[in-house]
Design goal:
Blueprint: H1 3-18, H2 21-30, H3 37-44, H4 48-60, E1 64-69, E2 72-77, H5 80-97
Antiparallel strand pairs: 1-2
Helix pairs in contact: 3-4
């Protein structure tokens, strides 16, 4: 696989992750650090099953990781660069949506 194909694959997976509002909310909720599905469900005001389904998608996209702690699972962003990318993308979108040109 070429570098271009690798980058294309990464962008497609990121696009899939960001294409759903609940998954975006989950990513934002994970920015401060790892969390458990029950905590995330409470934060988002949704069911644990809904959160679990979206976390599975985010894992399959390679965006989050899971650490099993006995019967519990703790989720976190896979890489610090993902945290920066999410913050940068959200900031860029806010800048553009307010009619300002990005610097």
């Amino acid at each position: 696989m070429t570098e271009t194909e690798t980058h294309l694959d990464a962008l497609v997976r990121l696009g899939k992750a960001l294409s759903d509002r609940t998954r975006c909310r989950l990513l934002l909720a994970l920015l401060p650090g790892p969390a458990y599905p029950a905590e995330l469900a409470e934060t988002l005001g949704t069911t644990r099953q809904n959160v679990s389904n979206h976390l599975l998608c985010l894992r399959e996209c390679g965006i989050v990781t899971v650490t099993h702690e006995g019967r519990r699972a703790r989720y976190a962003l896979r890489d610090e660069r993902i945290q920066h990318a999410i913050t940068d993308i959200a900031g860029l979108t806010l800048t553009v949506s307010h009619g300002h040109e990005p610097s």
